[in-house]
Amino acid sequence: MSSIENVSRRRFLTGGVIAAGALVLGVRYYHKLSSCDKLPHDTNADHATLHPSVYLGIDPDGTVWIVASRSEMGTTSRTTLPLVVADELDADWKRVKIEQAIGDSRYGDQNTDGSHSIRSFYDAMRVAGATARFMLIQAAAKEWGVPPAGCETDLHVVVHRSTNRKAGYGELASAAAKFPVPRKEELKLKPKSAWRYIGKGEVSYDLEALVTGKAIYGMDARADGMVYASVERPPVLGGKVKSYDDKEPLKVAGVSQTIPIDPFQQAPGFQPLGGVAVIADNTWAAFQGRKKLNISWDNGPNETYNSDSYKNELRATSHNPCKVVRNIGDADAEFAKGGKILEADYYVPLLAHAAMEPLVALAEFKDGKATLWAPTQNPQGAQDIVAKELGIPKEDVICHVTLLGGGFGRKSKPDYVAEAAVLSKKMGRPVKVVWTREDDVKFDYYNAVASMYMKAAVGANGKPTAWLQRSVFPPIPSIFDVNAVYGDPAHLQQGWTDIPYDLPNLRVENGPAKAHVRIGWLRSVANIYHAFGIQCFTDELAHAAGRDPLDYLLDLIGQPRTIDFKGVEYPNYGASMEAYPWDTGRLRHVTELVAEKSGWGKRKHGKGTGVGIAAHKSFLTYVATVVEVEVNDQGEVRVPRVDTALDAGLVVNPEATRAQFEGAAVFGTSVVRSGEITATKGVIDQSNFQDYPVARINEVPNQTNVYIVDSDAPPAGVGEPGVPPFIAAFCNAIFAATGKRVRDLPITKLGLS
Amino acid sequence: MFDEAYPVHAFVARNETIQLMVNGEKQLFSGEPEMPLLWYLRDILGLTGSKFGCGVGLCGACTVHINGQATRSCVTAMRDTAGKEVTTVEGLEKNGLHPVQKAWMQINVPQCGYCQVGQIMQAAALLNSKKNPPDHEIDEAMSGNICRCGTYQRIRAAIKAAAGEMA
Questions:
Q1: pLDDT tens-digit profile of A379-407?
Q2: What is the mean predicted confidence (pLDDT) over A549-572?
Q3: Can you tell me whether residue A712 is helix, strand or coil?
Q4: Domain end: B74, B91, B108, which one?
Q5: Which of A78, A258, A302, A380 sits at 20 to 30 Å (Cα–Cα) from A717?
Q6: Do B6 and B84 fall within a single domain?
Q7: How many contacts (CB atoms, under 8 Å) link A and B?
Q8: Residues of B in contact with A282 (CB under 8 A)
């Protein structure tokens, strides 16, 4: 086995003990590759003296190893989930060492998407901690000859108060390991009053490593004998190499060879796109050589795709009856009565992820097995596609997960990892594939372009008597089945079939759209365009009725009730409807809360200024946001203030949650100001930050205030739910300030910047 | 002084050895003089703190100091580093943490963290040239550094905290 070269680790080891995150990550890589006596999937937790769970181990020196099985891309889940283990264990956080899991089904689902790390693993983390605590108490009780019921735990110790005895977790670890692992039913979880960390939170375990440059991302992974690859991919989805000439690339100093990569079969899925790889002994040489490739392409049928005409097709589809996905009453009968009718079209273009770390992966194929190092949200998915591409069993694919320099959903799709593996197999040595920013923008799995047609008949008080909404967008399943054209329930539920308004007549429809680029999950996904359509149309109706947008919104949300989804295919983000019912009272509460906190209706707004409001539930979290804007005579938009209130049930880490909602306002700012991917003859027009700009410090909200509702409801998501209502509230504020209604994003189309 | 020992060359011919200082250590480079400093630091010296984000000087993830000035290493050719002093995050502070790094921790700035080294190098250079920059000067100095996670509000707060510390 080879050893990984890890300069950062060496530097760290001479640098002190504070940057523990970098240490653990470094040690793990080093350890895994340099030692042959342990299986590659082993963790330090596995080899700890007390090891009652795959997530946890305790050494005799009192070190508590906690395995982070979810990927860390900035949401702090790598810290927050171990914090739950530590709380239930009554462990001293300073004595906890976190180690990152490889892809392995024994940890359950590892695809870090859908804002569900805490929701899906909160209970498992508590059980892991409680199990170890139970066994430590058993060991101490036996040692002291007292009943376990008389023992309790304090910080990293078991105590028996009546005899004034105590023993540390480290010294008890060996004896505790002799007891059987208790069943879940035997465990007694700590009451809320005894929580040390849950609800209080903690900064990232990796914080110091992050500010000192010692943190290891995928871009920083190295292996002995490694070469670098840069891939020229088919400019049109589904295109193939007809022929190519590599004479010029091979003249570039450092370039050793070129290797063709096969195009994907049938639907793209997570397969490599194909093309030609240029191999070199450093990244820059690979980039330079690639520029000199001369490739003749067969572009295939997607060559006819132009985003301008495609937009018109989507809109035309949305103007005709489509598939009904939810219905209440008879909207058409109400429309036929000939009262006041309002209609509007909304449009959101394709969006790219543009995480700061471009895609990158390192793979080593050796002796029939593949070892991967990748900044992936989805290590098991990487194992699957690599096994398939290389024709080896999944168990022979080891996927190490580095830190991720942002993910936003792009890194849950492991096509880039498969590229590295395919190349390593062909070369018989470790290969690191480095995507340029241009690759990252041009070969994304884009958030779907979507057209929404909205129609309402309104009564005397301006309240809708009938409501019709149609969305048309190329669906994500099209990456697996090129004939998939309708929205699937998992994405129609995202702010569309679950429109929370109390309406007598409602029809929700979805129309077909064929994909010509890869469509994929991007932070908040379909909620982005659905919330934009519904929440901005609501604002239009309020203004048309001459009513205050807040009062009008609350009127539509109606009285607190649980939405009945009878007859609707509603997956509820994979959660049970019993544990996570759709409670309009909670949406109403965050709306009222944000109105109060933002001083809605109380602050004066002069010329060119205004506020907008929107409320939206996604990923089981209720959010309402108020955005204040200033627009000058040149059409330049500033955002002095954002207020956002959220009810995510139990919040384990409020500090990290605030950060997610601050970040959501920035992510949403990019969508509103400049987010647009277009295509001409099947080729993506944008390439880098000059033509796909994302928000900079001088363009973002000056102040984002986050209000977290204190709740004992089960935990929901926090990574994504902040984005959709921010976008809609921002656009509603622009209307309040300028009288210009934003129906097509981004706002550059209205002459605003 | 480094400059006296190794005078700056206006032009470095191909294969001519380039001498430069990186974090106080003399380095010799005899490769392709057009290679950007970023890839020399990352692939050849193994200093991976400076990040690749865009390759064209638009995002600031690769920011280092050259003779004390914040510079995008992804668009700085090795030929232009001859005789210069390069400081990366690995050499920002010899003892412990730089005040800007401390402020970044105190305000809990990073999310994914990938851009933060570039942000910190940019902020450190700003505070070296200006003791207490007002908001608009912070925005101006930092507007070349993108953070996709959206930590800007905290970046601004951390720069103010660091400014207070360094004053």
A1: 999 999 999 999 999 999 999 999 999 99
A2: 97
A3: coil
A4: B91
A5: A380
A6: yes
A7: 190
A8: 35, 39, 43-44
Query: CATH second-level architecture of A218-298+359-434?
Result: 2-Layer Sandwich (3.30)
Task: Tell me the shortest Cα–Cα distance from A358 to chain B, in angstroms.
Answer: 6
Contact B117 A213 (CB under 8 A): yes
Quote the percentage of chain A above a pLDDT of 90.
93
Nearest to B110 among A211, A254, A660 (CB): A211
What φ, ψ does residue A24 adopt, rounded to 5°?
Answer: -65, -45
Best mutation target, B35, B40, B41, B48, to test chain A (most A CBs within 10 A): B48
The per-residue b/e assignment along A464-493, b for 16 or more CB within 10 angstroms, e otherwise, is: bbbbbbbbbbbbbbbbeebebbbbbebbbb
The pLDDT value recorded for residue A39 is 59
Cis amide linkage into residue A235, ω under 30° from 0: no
Identify the architecture of domain A7-212 in CATH. Answer: 2-Layer Sandwich (3.30)
Question: Within this chain, do residues B86 and B6 fall inside the same structural domain, yes or no?
Answer: yes
Say if residue B86 is in the same domain as residue B8.
yes
pLDDT at A745 exceeding the cut of 90? yes
Q: Identify the residue among A200, A212, A255 best suited for mutation to test binding to B, counting B beta carbons within 10 A and taking the highest.
A: A212
Q: Which of A688, A691, A693, A681 is nearest to A235 (CA)?
A: A681
Of A732, A244, A256, A371, whose CA–CA distance to A536 is shortest? A732
Q: Which residue of B has its CA nearest to A76?
A: B111
Whether residues B130 and B85 share a domain: the answer is no
On whether both B73 and B128 belong to a single domain, the answer is no
Q: Is the CB of B56 less than 8 angstroms away from the CB of A437?
A: yes
| CB–CB contact B53 A357 (8 Å) | yes
> Structural domain tally of chain B?
2
Per-residue CA distances from A190 to A140, A333, A353, A522 (Å): 19, 56, 40, 37
Residues B24 and B43 in one domain: yes
Please name the amino acid found at residue B49. G
User: Which ipTM value was assigned to this complex?
Assistant: 0.94
Instruction: Report the half-sphere exposure of A170 (CA within 13 A, side-chain side).
Output: 10
Same domain, residue pair B15 and B78: yes
Per residue in B107-141, pLDDT (tens digit) is 999 999 999 999 999 999 999 999 999 999 999 99
Q: Are residues B153 and A703, on separate chains, in Cβ contact within 8 Å?
A: yes
Q: What is the fold, at CATH topology level, of the domain defined by A307-351+445-750?
A: Aldehyde Oxidoreductase; domain 4 (3.30.365)
Residue B139 belongs to a domain with what CATH number?
1.10.150.120
Which chain B residues touch A74 with a CB distance below 8 Å? 110-113, 149
Domain that includes residue B9, residue range: 2-91
Q: Which residue of B has its CA nearest to A354?
A: B148
Domain boundary (B58, B91, B124) is at B91
Residues of chain A with Cβ-Cβ distance to B126 below 8 Å are none
| Residue of chain A whose alpha carbon sits nearest to that of B98 | A212
Residues of A in contact with B37 (CB under 8 A): none
pLDDT category of residue B15 using cuts at 50, 70 and 90: low
Domain layout of chain A by residue ranges: 7-212, 218-298+359-434, 307-351+445-750
A3 has a pLDDT exceeding 50: no
Tell me whether residues B49 and A8 touch, CB distance under 8 A: yes
Q: Which residue's structure tokens are 């299986």?
A: A39
Flag if A222 and B46 touch (Cβ within 8 Å): yes
Of B36, B115, B150, the CB nearest to A284: B36
What residues contact B135, with CB distance under 8 A and at least 6 apart? B156
Suggest the residue from B52, B78, B95, B154 to mutate for an interface test with chain A (most A CBs closer than 10 A).
B52
What are the φ and ψ backbone dihedral angles of A373, each rounded to 5 degrees? -130, 115
Q: Are residues B107 and B64 in the same domain?
A: no
Residue among A207, A214, A694 whose CB faces B105 most closely: A207
* Measured distance CA(A165)–CA(A157) in Å, rounded: 10
